[in-house]
Amino acid sequence: MKKYVLIIAEKPDAARRIASALDFDQKARSMNDKGVPYYVATRERKIVVVPALGHLYTVSAEAGGRDAFPVLGFRWVPRYLAEKKAQRTRAWLQVITELSRDADEFIDACDYDTEGSIIGYFILKYACGGKEGVSRRMKYSTLTKEELQRSYAQSLPHLDFPLIEAGRTRHEVDWLYGINLSRALTQISKNHSGKYRTLSTGRVQGPLLSFLASREKSIRSFTPTPYWQIHAHVRMNGKPCVAQYAKRRIETRKEAETVSNACRGIGRVEKVESKQFHQFPPPPFDLGALQVEAHGLFGYSPKTTLDLAQRLYLDALISYPRTGSQKLPSAIGYRSILRNLNKAQEYRTLTAELLAGPILKPHEGRKEDPAHPAIYPTGKLSDRVLSRPERNIWDIVVRRFMAAFGESATIRSLKVTVEVKGHLFYIEGRRTLKEGWQRFYEPYIVSESRDVPSVQEGDTVEFKETVAERKLTHPPPRYNPASLLQKMDEVGIGTESTRADIIQALYRRKYVRGERMTVTDLGSAVLEVLKDSCRKIVSTKMTKELEDRINGIRLAVESRENVLAHAVENLTPALRRLQERRREIGENLSNAIRRMVLEERIVGACPVCKTGNLVVIYSKKSGKRFAGCTNYFEGRCKASFALPQNGTIGRSRRNCRECGWPTVQVKMRRRKTWVLCFNPDCPSRKRKTEEKELSNVQETSS
Amino acid sequence: MCRRQVLEQGYCRLWRKAKEIPWKEYLSEIAKNSLTGERAREVTRHPKITEN
Hints:
The complex is a heterodimer.
Chain A: E1 4-9, H1 12-22, E2 29-33, E3 36-42, E4 46-51, E5 57-61, E6 74-78, H2 79-82, H3 88-101, E7 103-108, H4 114-127, E8 136-137, H5 145-153, H6 161-193, H7 205-220, E9 226-236, E10 239-245, H8 253-262, E11 265-279, H9 287-298, H10 302-314, H11 334-341, H12 348-356, H13 388-404, E12 409-420, E13 423-434, E14 460-472, H14 481-491, H15 499-508, E15 512-513, E16 518-519, H16 521-534, H17 540-554, H18 560-580, H19 582-601, E17 602-605, E18 613-618, E19 625-629, E20 640-642, E21 648-651, E22 663-667, E23 674-677, H20 683-701
Parallel strand pairs in A: 1-4, 1-7, 7-8
Antiparallel strand pairs in A: 2-3, 3-4, 5-6, 9-10, 9-14, 10-13, 11-12, 11-14, 12-13, 15-16, 17-18, 18-19, 19-20, 21-22, 22-23
Helix pairs in contact in A: 1-5, 4-6, 6-17, 6-18, 6-19, 7-16, 9-10, 9-14, 10-13, 11-12, 16-18, 16-19
Chain B: H1 3-8, H2 11-19, H3 23-32, H4 38-45
């Protein structure tokens, strides 16, 4: 059989795009074997492009059962051997192995980052029978035809081995931490309560929970203190304005009242200060900045934004999103991107304006990523109708890209100092003189203008009313997924690609809840256990240190063996302490789990005894569910209410509007969510019954 | 949060200076304030908490 070039891509969509781009007619043949798609392209030589399905190999314990710990021996195995849910990958590996037999050239075309490099490396090493040393590497940042053709023609002569070594070490260290600590927590809790519940922690998850818990502690122990702010309604040059008292925060009521009583009548303009400054365009997006912006503008979680950006990348609409760079190298072809975007009606005027200029030079940020530039639009317009969220992400990427080429905005600020009865007040104004880049980023930026009447020093100001407003200090704000992501970036823990998943894991494990992240009892209990037994594990310092050492492998100043030995050195005493204190830890964790399970089942306050809570209970006899009062177990309340037997019961935010009793939300598949009031005599229930009866009668008569 | 923390952080001093109110009233103001944290509120309800 004629030999061919075998290209390994990371995902099926990427494989299809690569094959089409490399085929002479851009019409690669689509093949399928055992449900695994692959593509055949014809160029100077026959090319077969086969996709992976993300990671096909993973770290697994060398020996011992699923519950054993500590486990310090590991090896890389096919994912289907380690994970029950990954059985699909067996066929995938078989097909790749079969295809590799007739190939005489190998190219790794997985995403050019740590994860992509590891995916390609292990496939070439194990599935293709030791071809990692002879394989070439395609490096690209967009899935456009031109870039794929170029990256094939100029493929790198070998894989990026230092990057692979650093990446696999990161996986191995994370596995060591994750598997050992998670198994320790889960086993200790199970041995104590007899009930299984997965508890997890990890090298990054622990410190993250620690940030949240520390913020939670500050919020829970916060005591507000009062202060006063004074403002005056004045008339200046015949126009009404608001003047702020020079001292922004007054600690006592007495002082506030004295000032507000004194500051009346006629004041005089002491000083007029005008400043003009330039506001530079924001840098193009790196992944973190995109996630933060999308959360602020549209409320998308970092994980959602990453998924949306990934889809846009696979459609070749934007460049590779998992990047930490804020740079736009000229090689991406600014003009050609803008010319292509010019075909879209909504960007026509703006792109035309940029293209009319003599030079295109983007304003860039400081952050760099050796593998990829900042996120930018490829210029390609979508062949399909984008969903609203996809469209939103694409739009902010396009507008931010255009804004980077815009001129600085010019803003003038004005500060008028007014003196009245020996007290100073400020009147501040702001006006955008030249919008510059801001026009390109509309509607996502609103230029704020506050006009101040024109005055001169010595002019009089009439004080109409002076108000002392009592305010209270606020507790520090809770983290939300976006601000937590920023914090991770700031302290340098996790990677661009993994941060969103780690935040999601905190929700999945029920360590936190809500958009404004509140640490649950379970989250606090897990953190306390980790802090008591192995404080180092939840410290940012240790995580950051490990992170730096892993990066050192990439720079060839550190070795994988050293990093692993260091990780084991930290881990072993921690596991020993967990074992020694297992009884106490088991009790704490089991109690926290019990409290959380009970809390999850609470649907509202008991309307009968008013001291207990209504919880969902399953009858041991019939298996049916109903709502009963928690005081029943102490013999203090016998209240119980029927619940629908189908659908999901959820806590409702407010009590019944008609009778004030607690309500529950009932969610049923393919039906609108409805609210059920517990009160059997509630007018809303009666009305619903009557409506139902009436519709039954109408149906029968018709 | 313990009473020591309340005092050390000077909340008490600041509040009373600001509003010039007696100790008991100060505690009740904190207890009913929506911005007060749960633990701080628990402290205000503790029967043994005194001005000194």
